[in-house]
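Supplementary Data S3. Sequence and structure tokens for construct A.
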Amino acid sequence: MVAGDFNTILNASEKNNENLDRNMMQRFRAFVHEHELKDLYMHGRTYTWSNERERATLTRIVRVLVSVDWDLQHFDAVLHGLSSSVSDHAPLHLALNAAFRPKRRFRFENCWLKLDGFDEAVKEAWVCDPAIVDPFRRLDALFRNAAEHLQSWGQKRVGNIKLNIAIANTLILRLDVAQERRTLTPVEFWLRRMLKQSVLGLASVERTMARQRSRIRWLREGDANTSLFHAVANGRRVKNYIASVKVGEELVTDQEGKVEAFTEAFDDPQV
């Protein structure tokens, strides 16, 4: 859904002066909340309309509103504000397959603290080459080794949560169907009970991870709505996405080029 009108302002920050119709703002916010819509973050611009005067009035009156389901299905969507060209309105460009998949980095998962063997895993991971004597290099090596070891340990202990839940539910379904036709054997009954306990445990871990990544603190872990958490986490990721970097007169948009530009700037502050 694309909204474009002088009354489609959600926040006071979307206009560069205090001449606001707050009643209309409240009504528009109520409409967005009532229909459970999400306002896509716009890269590149703050406002989308100007009255083209010397002391210009600027507002954001064009936006893209989507449902949570749409947002989850199009997690690579990125919205850009373009040049207004000969118009007083700035057109929007919505890319549905933006390539912004950075190299996977280490993330400490809070759910690891609930798993047996975590303390032992940390002790095994906190090692480095004794030949490294410089304290800063030694600390860097310890952190890197610990991150690599814990990432591998966590993957082995937890694995692909969604896939494991799907497999467990498939097996439970087959045992349910079998139970409708005959009495389950003791082994089948035990397996069905273990699978149900496994699904509960995996669902709890999934909620913990979603809560951590979404940074929503006002909901209890047990009451977590996974779709909501993933939507918020995805929104944060899109908002933090850097679409381009200007190096001198050149505009860099590819991922490798942006990494190289940041690396050179870090190594040489004069760049």
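Construct B, processed identically:
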Amino acid sequence: MTELKKKLHDKVAIVTGGASGIGEATARKFALHGARAVVIADVQDQKGQDVAASIGPHCNFIHCDVTDEEQVKSLVDSTVQMHGRLDIMFSNAGIFCSSMQTVLEFELSEYDKLMVVNVRGMAACVKHAARAMVEGGVRGSVICTASVVATIGLKWFTDYTMSKHTILGLMRSASIQLGAYGIRVNCVSPGTVQTPITDSLVNFKDVEQMTKFTASLGIDGGKEFMSPEHVANAVVFLASEDSQFISGHNLVVEGVVDGGQKS
């Protein structure tokens, strides 16, 4: 059996929202691909500590609420102090709507709560990761979690959709501004993935229910649904030298339709 190529050998990475879902799967993939240090950041303390312990001694957990810029700065500074540098920032922390959030019944107070995590928190992570990379002379990789909905509209979930569109704007601007420093900035945009958030919306074990749910959103994901590991593989690609000439790109990972690759 061929030995796994260590795509991230000796790299230092931060994963926000790393205690569960896509973040957890990506932290594990980073370690598997040879990262020297993986820092899991989350507000779920016990889950984050458990995941870090299960990955091994080269992984640690730091509590971080991305809505607090000082906590984000401390996260990045602590990582650099402990490990000497920061090569990869996977800015993944995010939340979902608390209601259907149609335009006619738009709860702006709920919008505010979502945007401060999904957009302000993302901007803080990109800002402080980029500063650390520039100061350290690191030609790093910043990856932001957007969504397949970042380029379309939905019948519901208006504020969530708005937040993911905004993340694309952040990524595209940052990729232009940071290119001179050799720092790449990209997005990964998953389709319907089984995570704690989506588990609260639909039963993934019921294929018919899942198909109806995705169709109702205008997303055709076929009859096979992704796991967080599928998205994590895409993040590893964007973090590694395999994508060294890719920046300002939105990598959509949305599944297979009727045996053919969806474009």
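Helices lie at 21-32, 45-55, 69-83, 108-136, 158-178, 196-199, 207-217, 228-239. The radius of gyration is 18 Å.
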